[in-house]
C-alpha cells in the first residue's frame, strides 16, 4: 500500500488553453502520483476581466455540484469544442451538445443548464473563483498542492516539474509511460 493521497486543487476555466494543458497532465498523473485531484471550475473573468466563458463555467459548476463524476469528461469536451474544433461554448445548444457527448443524458444536461442560472450555482462559482484569488491567482490555471500540512500555489501548466518536486514525485513528461495513466 502506497502513501496516503495528497490533495491537489486545480482551478481552471475552459476558455484557457493553458488550463487544458494542466488539466490533461494532472488527470494523467493522478494515479501515478497518488493524488486526490479536486477539479475546481473557476471564472477567469472574475480574475482577468472580460472573459467570455461565464455560461460554460456556470454549467461546469452545476455539473460539479450534482454530478461530479462526469466533471472531467464534460470539461474535456468543452475544451475540445472551443480549442480543437473552433466551436462556440457560450451558447446553450453547444453546452448541451458537449455534455451529451461527454456521456450525460439530454435530460440531465438540460436540467443542469437550467440550474446554471440559480443563485446556488452562481454563488458557488463566485466562491470558487474567490478561493483561487485568496490563493494568489492572477490567471488560470493554478494548482494548489496541500502537502505535509503546507499549501503551495503553482501557476500555469508549464510548472508540472515543480509540482512533481513538491510532491516528491518523478516528472516523466506530459504523457507518462505508465499503463494505468489516462490518455
TrEMBL record:
Cellular component GO terms, alphabetical: mitochondrion; peroxisome
SUPFAM superfamilies: Thioredoxin-like (SSF52833)
Transferase as UniProt keyword: yes
One Pfam entry name: DSBA
Residue numbers annotated as active site: 16
Keywords: Transferase
Superkingdom field: Eukaryota
Catalysis performed (reactions): RX + glutathione = an S-substituted glutathione + a halide anion + H(+)
Enzyme class: transferase
Family, per entry: Belongs to the GST superfamily. Kappa family.
Name listed for the protein in its UniProt record: Glutathione S-transferase kappa 1
Species of the source: Cebus imitator (Panamanian white-faced capuchin)
Upper lineage: Eukaryota, Metazoa, Chordata, Craniata, Vertebrata
Amino acid at each position: 500500500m502506497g502513501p496516503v493521497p495528497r490533495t491537489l486543487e486545480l482551478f481552471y476555466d475552459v476558455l484557457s488553453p493553458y488550463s487544458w494543458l494542466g488539466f490533461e497532465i494532472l488527470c494523467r498523473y493522478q494515479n501515478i502520483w497518488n493524488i486526490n485531484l479536486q477539479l475546481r471550475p473557476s471564472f477567469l473573468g472574475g480574475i482577468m476581466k472580460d472573459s467570455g466563458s461565464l455560461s460554460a463555467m456556470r454549467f461546469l459548476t452545476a455539473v460539479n455540484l450534482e454530478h461530479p463524476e462526469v466533471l472531467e469528461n464534460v470539461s474535456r469536451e468543452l475544451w475540445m469544442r472551443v480549442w480543437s474544433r473552433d466551436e462556440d461554448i457560450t451558447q446553450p445548444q453547444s453546452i448541451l451538445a458537449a455534455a451529451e457527448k461527454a456521456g450525460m443524458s439530454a435530460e440531465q444536461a438540460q436540467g443542469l443548464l437550467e440550474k446554471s442560472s440559480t443563485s446556488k450555482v452562481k454563488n458557488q462559482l463566485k466562491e470558487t473563483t474567490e478561493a483561487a484569488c485568496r490563493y494568489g491567482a492572477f490567471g488560470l490555471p493554478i494548482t494548489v498542492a496541500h502537502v505535509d500540512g503546507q499549501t503551495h500555489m503553482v501557476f500555469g501548466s508549464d510548472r508540472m516539474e515543480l509540482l512533481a518536486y513538491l510532491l516528491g514525485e518523478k516528472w516523466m513528461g506530459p504523457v507518462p509511460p505508465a499503463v494505468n495513466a489516462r490518455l
